[in-house]
Amino acid sequence: MNRLRKLKRLKKEPARRRKPSEMQQLREGKRKRIAVTKSPGHVDKILRTEEKWGELSIKAHTRREICLSNELLDYDLVRRLIHGAAHRWARAYRDKRITFEDFLSSFYEAAWRVIERYTWATDFYLFETISNAIKRRGQSMLRAAGNDKRRAFHEALPLADDF
After folding, report:
1. In 63-99, which ranges are continuous DSSP H helix?
2. Residue 49: per-residue pLDDT
3. For 96, which DSSP code?
4. Taking 80 as the threshold, does the pLDDT of residue 5 lie above it?
5. Residue 15: which region, alpha, beta or left (left: phi > 0; alpha: psi -120 to 50)?
6. Could you tell me which residues come within 8 angstroms of residue 158 by beta carbon, excluding any fewer than 6 positions away?
7. Which of 37, 101, 115, 118 is disulfide-compatible with 69, CB 3.0–4.6 A?
8. Helix, strand, or coil (residue 162)
9. What is d(CA 122, CA 128) in angstroms, rounded to the nearest whole number?
10. Is the dihedral of CA 130, 55, 30, 46 positive or negative?
11. What is the CA radius of gyration of the chain?
12. Angle 81-82-85 (CA atoms, 0-180°, nearest 5)?
């Protein structure tokens, strides 16, 4: 009798492990990608910003509000990202008639639009998406001012030379 029980136990297949859902696979893929490509400090900033976005989106949902951009734009990491980028771009192109305030305003607008359209189901985290949007916006501003790769050393003319 004991022998029969042991045989039945052996014949049972081990419990199968559940396959992770698409959401879990996406989150795990994102985490692995940033762990490999980014420094630990940068990974921490990315994950903290994502966590803050999650908290604010839950809060906005419970209060039945749509706009969470204001609070997230006031979040320290996002604010530092925008201001730091504006300082870097303004310093690098100070002779191109584009001021720090121009860059700052444009970068806030780009970040606002990214936050409004962001969902968890994208391939990139919010911090990365904002950073990429800021870079693209800075390049667009330079093109609009007449500076592109073909004319990298374009200098702005003084006002007296235009007349």
Report:
1. 69-73, 76-92
2. 93
3. G
4. no
5. beta
6. none
7. 115
8. helix
9. 11
10. positive
11. 25
12. 85
- 3-class secondary structure, 97: coil
pTM: 0.75
Extract the tokens encoding 90: 């303004």
Contact 82, 104 (CB under 8 A): yes
Return the residue matching tokens 């730091």: 84
**Which of 146, 142, 121 minimizes the C-alpha distance to 50?**
121
Q: Which of 79, 73, 80, 63 is closest to 115 using CA atoms?
A: 73
Residue range 130-156, pLDDT digits in tens: 999 999 999 999 888 876 555 555 555
Instruction: Give the separation between CA 65 and CA 72, rounded to whole angstroms.
Output: 14
pLDDT at 9 over 80: no
What pLDDT sits at residue 157? 55
